[in-house]
Amino acid sequence: MIEYTEGIYNFYVYMITNKNRTVLYTGVTNNLKRRLNEHKNHINASSFTARYNVEFLIYYEHFGWIQLAIAREKEIKDMRRELKLNLIQEFNPEMKFLNSHFE
User: Fold this and answer.
1) Per-domain residue ranges of the chain
2) Domain 11-102 has what CATH class?
3) Per-residue pLDDT of the chain in tens (103 residues, 90 and over written 9)
């Protein structure tokens, strides 16, 4: 059995959306500030996030271990859209853009 303590690292599972909040993207990163900047600047022009202008943070969770973050990312990606929206609204009821928290 693996027992996880608090962990000393910083990993984030996050959801971003477009300006109209119609598209959702879920990802995992060890540096949310850098990753949000990459989405904003369309580092990979052919990516899903670049094509749909998905760059606005509306949800995130912090983890101390990458294994837990990856497992949570997969769990969220497997959710129906309705459940993702419920998760977001519990965390961020007004669905405000949270990018400024990581500038």
Assistant:
1) 11-102
2) alpha beta
3) 445 556 778 999 999 999 999 999 999 999 999 999 999 999 998 999 999 999 999 999 999 999 999 999 999 999 999 999 999 999 999 999 999 999 8
